[in-house]
Amino acid sequence: ISRFYELETCLKVNKTQVLNLTSECQKVIINESFQSPCKVSICPTEMRKSLSYCRDYILIANFVMMVFIPLLVLSAVNCHIYRFITVSARSITKTSSRQKRDQRIARILIVIVLVFTCCNVPRAIINMYEVFHLA
Q: What's the rounded Cα separation, in Å, for the pair 77 and 80?
């Protein structure tokens, strides 16, 4: 939720942020002339500029809550299901269609975990890059 407060609209004159309305910016707003060097832009807030916020929230909390815990839970549950299916398949000598279906489902569950990992690891890497190189 706090990511909503990371950015705010601001005014920039020649790529430099201005804190209050200059006469040039007032002319732009009143006359709606887009020829002025004053432009409305999106700027980071003080919270977003804080290294501790970037490190603690974006990297650590976001990674733990959105990647690590779900991956851990998915892996543990699917590992348990896979072991249960393989143990039950070993106890019966003749493989039935139900056992083949269960083994196919176990493979699908493993693929789901791998897809989840492949989709979330790049996001975690981008967050790390953002914290260490851009903040």
A: 5
**Residue 5 Cα distances to 11, 50, 54, 73, angstroms:** 17, 12, 13, 31
What local confidence, expressed as pLDDT, does residue 93 receive?
65
For the chain, strand residue ranges (E) read: 7-13, 16-18, 38-44
pTM of the model: 0.59
Q: What integer pLDDT is reported at residue 115 of this predicted model?
A: 93
- Specify the residue for token string 């269609």: 97
Cα distance between residue 65 and residue 30, in whole Å: 47
- pLDDT(109) > 70: yes
Which pair of structure tokens corresponds to residue 30? Answer: 């009143």
Whether residue 6 contacts residue 44, with contact meaning beta carbons closer than 8 Å, is answered with: yes
Tokens at 36, concatenated: 């002025």
Cβ atoms of 21 and 29 within 8 Å: the answer is yes
For 67-98, how does the pLDDT look when each residue is reduced to its tens digit (9 = 90+)?
889 989 988 998 888 888 778 777 776 667 87
Report helix angle 69-91 to 97-129, nearest 10.
160
Structure tokens at 73: 């839970």
